[in-house]
Structure formats: C-alpha cells, structure tokens
Amino acid sequence: MFSAPPTIGFDTSALNWLKDDVARRLYGRFHVLLFGMNAEEIVATPSVKAERREVLLTRLEGLLCSGHCLWPPHMILESLISAHFKYPMQFSWQRVSARSMMYEQGIIRRVFTEEDSSQQLEHQNAVQEKFEQIWAGIRPELDAIRSNPATKWEPRSFQDVSGRPPGHPRRRWRNPLGSRTHYLQSGHQG
Length: 190
Fold this sequence. Notes:
The protein has 190 residues and is mainly alpha-helical.
C-alpha cells in the first residue's frame, strides 16, 4: 500500500547549513516544502556572494524534485481573504492553493538580475528595520507587563504552553498541510 511521505520544511538558516549529501537523501523520502521567503532571502544574497547564492539556489532546485514551493505568508493570507470574500458560504481554507509555481520556476530558471537581487536585499533590510521599530515602540508596555507580579508568567516546560493536562503522555494534532497525524512528546523542556 502506498503511503505519502512525511512533509518537511526548512527556514533559510537551515538551508544554509544543510549539506548536499543530506539534501540528496531527502529526495523521495520526504515531501519537501520550500517557502517563497526562502527564495527571496537567497535571491537577496549580495553579488559579492554570488557563488554562495548559486549553491543555495541549486540546493533549492534539487529539493523541489521532492516537493514544492509556497507563496510568502502575506500572499497566502491575501488569497484566503479573497477566496472568503468571493464565496463566504462555500469557503474552505483547504481548497485555497498555497503553491507558488512562479517561485518554483524562478528558482529553476534563475529569472532575476543582480539589480533584482540588490533591490530584494534593500527591501528585506527595510522590512527588518520596520519590524524592529514596531517592537522597540511597544517594548516599554511589554516590560511593564512582565515586571507586574500579577501578570508575570513564564513557562517552565513544554507542558506549560501545550494545553495538555498534567500526566497526559502525548497530544495529537492534525497537520494543516495534510492528513498525517503527528505527536508532540511531553516531558521535554520547552
């Protein structure tokens, strides 16, 4: 009986550290999800590191043999909102495709220039700066909450944040990208 392979995904830092021989062993054994943000971050690699960028793009291309690429989160959210707006009564998030064949083709065909690369890097730096400003702006409010004994709570274990009753050995959860059931093991520090 045919069984679908488990799904695995990587953030860009893991893709940077992933060795090619390990990546080759994933082919066919896992359904690999690549994220549009991975491709964007790799494309943003400065031209002085163009050789490294090419190694990473080749790695992404190889991983696509066992999976596909998803749109960046904000684009998935836009698709979900749009689908719900058009057909609110028939809406099902599972029917909205998050797959980005455009990103897949971009990875395979290398359809970007050095100018695109530098613009992407500029954009990512601006987004990072804006993100840091948002958190810096609310930091005093967050610090006030943390310093107030009435509101202070810090988890000491994975169980504290899992919502699982004490003594319950494991909790089932449904993978939103497929029907496979996975288990979160308890007893490990979170």
